[in-house]
């Protein structure tokens, strides 16, 4: 096998394998980042809902003169 045959056969295969590895790695990284952002958004939304519920409970207790217990 001479050097031309080596370059014609193995170099494209090696480049393809390296491309697949890089592509899979980038997909994994971006998928993890997207999942982390999704979970963070869900936690933020839950925190906002809890805050609004607490504020509304306080406002209701002040309006009606009741001592409502704020549920967490």
Helix-strand sequence? H
What gyration radius follows from the Cα positions, in whole Å? 29 Å
Report mean pLDDT, rounded to a whole number.
Answer: 88
Number of E-state strands: 0
* Share of residues in strands: under 5%
Discrete helix count: 1
Instruction: Report how far the terminal alpha carbons are from each other.
Output: 74 Å
Structural class assignment: mainly alpha
Given the C-alpha coordinates, what overall shape results? rod-shaped
Largest sheet: none
Q: Could you name the ranges where pLDDT drops below 50 across 5 or more consecutive residues?
A: none
**Helix fraction?**
over 70%
Task: Pick out its properties.
72 residues, mainly alpha, rod-shaped
Notes on the protein architecture:
The chain is 86% helix and 0% strand. With 72 residues, the chain is mainly alpha-helical.
Task: Give a nutshell description of this structure.
By secondary structure, the protein is an all-alpha fold. Helices cover 86% and strands 0% of the residues. It has one helix spanning 3-64.
Blueprint of the fold:
Elements: H1 3-64
